[in-house]
Design goal:
The chain is of the alpha/beta class. Helices cover 50% and strands 12% of the residues. A six-stranded mixed beta sheet has the order 3-2-1-4-5-6, sandwiched between helices. α1 packs across α3, α2 crosses α3 and α7 packs across α8. The longest helix has 17 residues. The N terminus is likely disordered.
Length: 280
């Protein structure tokens, strides 16, 4: 049976609905983007990007638009729904994000960057900025990534195991204070009952997962899928044979890694090496 369309004919996707409402309100007033920018004091190109769905803008901009259009709270409510919606993630992550949210257990290998589930805001911001994000889009993606951390919190949080290549811990942030905060957070998370953290030391030598990071998700129906990512693209793999092959490689890497207790000591030892004063 086909999905019933909304009576209004407008999009049901929060981000698209927000953009549609912005365009509709402006065109009903007969204003151009430049005129809107002049009236509200923001660069008109920001409003153009918001209407195209390229950015959501910040709450201050949205509140100003609500006041300008005489729609108290409407646009801000739509903006909040759009910000919290998983479709804000780039297209290649959308299917993965939906599966991650329903996974009954997760296990991961990090080749060069901490998994998003364990990142602090400062770490996420610097890593995403290095990938080319900036401005409003950067802040939206940082906020979205922080929302993912809720998956590992609470009594019903699924078990999560991660193996961190030592290179992950030996690649500090430029901001010493933020790096210190990230290591402190790792030490805290490693003590949670549902989180198991391993460090794979440099001395382990070559192994089968050197080329990419990988996340395995056990789904409610018992099926396991894998998400493999390098610096340029990510791929969701659901076929049984290749997933099983990667799991065998993962098991071999886990055998080379330090125990959780030894791994936490490594994290804390690296933390001790970080200056307390960022100016030092």
């Amino acid at each position: 049976m086909p999905t019933r369309r909304a009576v209004t004919g407008r999009s049901r996707e929060p981000r698209a609905r927000f953009a549609e409402e912005l365009r509709l309100l402006r065109t009903q007033r007969g204003h151009s983007l430049r005129q809107l920018g002049e009236r509200l004091g923001w660069d008109w190109s920001l409003f153009g990007k918001m209407e195209k769905g390229e950015t959501l803008g910040g709450p201050e901009v949205v509140q100003a638009l609500d006041q300008h259009y005489g729609t108290p709270g409407l646009l801000l409510a739509l903006w909040e729904l759009a910000v919290s919606d998983k479709t804000q993630f780039r297209e290649r992550y959308r299917q993965y994000m939906a599966l991650e949210a329903e996974a009954t257990s997760l296990w991961h290998f990090a080749v060069s960057v901490l998994p998003g589930l364990l990142q602090t805001p400062g770490y996420a911001r610097e890593v995403l900025a290095a990938g080319g994000l900036k401005g409003e889009e950067l802040e939206q993606q940082v906020e979205a990534r922080m929302g993912r951390r809720e998956l590992l919190e609470g009594e019903d949080a699924p078990p999560f195991r991660t193996i961190l290549s030592e290179a992950v811990l030996r690649t500090p942030l430029r901001d010493v204070g933020e790096w210190r905060g990230q290591l402190e957070y790792l030490g805290e998370v490693a003590e949670r009952a549902n989180v198991t953290l391993h460090v794979l030391p440099f001395s382990a030598g070559p192994h089968g997962l050197m080329g990419a990071a990988v996340m395995f998700l056990r789904l409610p129906e018992g099926r396991t899928v894998a998400y493999v990512e390098n610096g340029y693209r990510g791929e969701l793999i659901g076929e049984t044979a290749p997933v099983e092959q990667m799991q065998l490689k993962y098991d071999a890497v886990r055998d080379l890694a330090l125990s959780p207790a030894e791994s936490r000591k490594v994290v804390l030892r690296i933390l001790e090496e970080v200056p307390c004063d960022p100016a030092i």
